[in-house]
Amino acid sequence: MPFIGSIALSSDKNLDEVILSDKSSFFVNIILKSNSSESSSIRIPVSRGSAFITGVYNQTKPVIRSQIAFEDITKDLIVHCNDGSKWVLYAWPPIQWVKTDMHTLNPVNIDNTWSGVIQIAKLPSDSNLDQSKMLYDRFCGSWSEGLTLDTDFRNDGLGCYTFRHKQYNAAKPTLFHLLPHQLNSVIADDGIKHEKLSLYTPSNGSTTVLSSITGEYLFAYPLPQLSLLPGATNLDSNEKEWLRAQINQELSKDWLTDIAKEASIYFSGKLVGRIANTLLIANYTLEDFQLTKIATKLLTECLDLILGDQRPHPLIYDTTIGGVISSAAHVTNDPIADFGSSFYNDIHFHAAYPVYAGAVLLSLDALSHDLKEKILDMINSVNSTETTQRFCAYRAFDWYVGHSWARGYLPSADGKDEESTTEAAHFYYSAALFSDYVGASKQSYTSRLQLSLMQESTKCYRLLDDSNEVMPFHWRGNRVGMCFENKRDHGTWFSPNIECIHGIHMLPLSPLTSFIRSPEFISQEFESHLRSIFPTNTGWDAIILTNWAFSDNQRAVKYAKEWIETAPDSSFDPGLSRSWAWLLAVSNIK
């Protein structure tokens, strides 16, 4: 639903000029000015996680407004709105307020020469108002004038990131709302204190308020060990011959024609990812030199095709914002062509498959310099570790919520959103492995840190097992869903079917699957949502069964292996081969 403001800082003047300054992923100064007066303005420093809404007024009469309605304002300046929310007001110099109509609070005996600071803070709906107000009374008058992010990587295998607030009032610590996934990783020191205040968010459970004398908050995670290959498997000669037959069949398909005809970088990328898996099996599992040679040549040609200029909608560099995007919208005049990727929608999903294929070729020292440079541009377009002349830092990743967003520069009433948890993780997995091979250590470490952060946030908000206590009880039973900034939806953009709603959080299946999707979650999800609909007689069936093989149920592994061997071709998604599904299932045999 669209955002409706319960309470807002305003003025009796028409401040119709908006200036944004000091912009970053975590902070912006919003300056509202009057075109008719150079002196009248409101400056609102907006910082992620801030406990106070702060307005710095200059020679203008302040007004507090509501898009819903004010019910009351008490003597101690607690504002009651008719949506049930309660807010506390602070002002320097002090102001006495009066409700002049249901949408407006006006100051008493204040004119247009007033300059000062107003702060607003939300009170919890389920706690003692006096206790919460006393906390705000202690910390009011402090706010952030900037918020930056630093990363650091240690020899002990830990990755760290730090939020650093530029505090306006060094004498008072800042109050900062932490989300549930951050609480297990924040490093508590003498300057950080958990305060007794919590607010409910639209889609991430309840926050916990902390204070920091320095304005710094440090978070640490172990960096995961990553591999292109599934776990060790001891295949007998019959199994290897069966697998070799599957690989021969894979390599006999006319992949170049299929990819050349496919206009979407996403769907053609999935095919390239499938061929990369075929190469992995040929080289590392079967150790078959001839098949490896054929698969290497095929993968190189296909990767060159989708990253070249001969495709229907080739990739281009956007000089307006600075990034590698699809030319689909420029060719079709349709902004949502190829999932809106011309407007940076889903760019990490789309980049993941070519980056993964590049990592596989690099593992054999078989990637050309030209393709390597193109893939490095794709990685930096999505996840540059610093802002450069060509790319912004961390375009898709939100360090505060702990995961990426798929929404690009297209409007949305419910804010940014993301459909697939695992396709997002696949990009950072692929970027880390690719970066290992080219010696880009900072990108490798950063992508691993992001994966650890995603693992924690996904467990809290997006893939919900029976132990989850973060999300509301009535929502947990859905297990999965699309995440928006303003809501959760047990659905997809493309289908209402259960196999699609749940299956989109399984793609693509890889050795990373059990890192993002715990064996316990996989078992519980299968029993609550998938057993009753299987088989669907669609390409989702192999995805569901191969995913089930990663569960903590060894009978599932045996069943999945046998089913994969004999299932009809129509049961397999175009991005998943029978050979790769089988090898993943077998790798989970204990």
UniProtKB/TrEMBL annotation:
Catalytic activity: Hydrolysis of (1->3)-beta-D-glucosidic linkages in (1->3)-beta-D-glucans
Source domain of life: Eukaryota
Similarity comment text for this entry: Belongs to the glycosyl hydrolase 81 family.
Family matches, as Gene3D superfamilies: Golgi alpha-mannosidase II, domain 4
GO molecular function, one term: endo-1,3(4)-beta-glucanase activity
GO biological process: cell wall organization; polysaccharide catabolic process
Stored Pfam families: Glyco_hydro81C, Glyco_hydro_81
Keyword DNA-binding: no
Enzyme Commission number(s) of this protein: 3.2.1.39
Keywords (A to Z) from UniProt: Carbohydrate metabolism, Cell wall biogenesis/degradation, Glycosidase, Hydrolase, Polysaccharide degradation
Name of the molecule in the record: glucan endo-1,3-beta-D-glucosidase
Top EC class of this enzyme: hydrolase
Residue ranges occupied by any Glycosyl hydrolase family 81 N-terminal domain in the UniProt entry: 4-209
InterPro entries registered for this protein in UniProt: Endo-beta-glucanase, GH81_C, GH81_N
Residues covered by the Glycosyl hydrolase family 81 C-terminal domain: 236-581
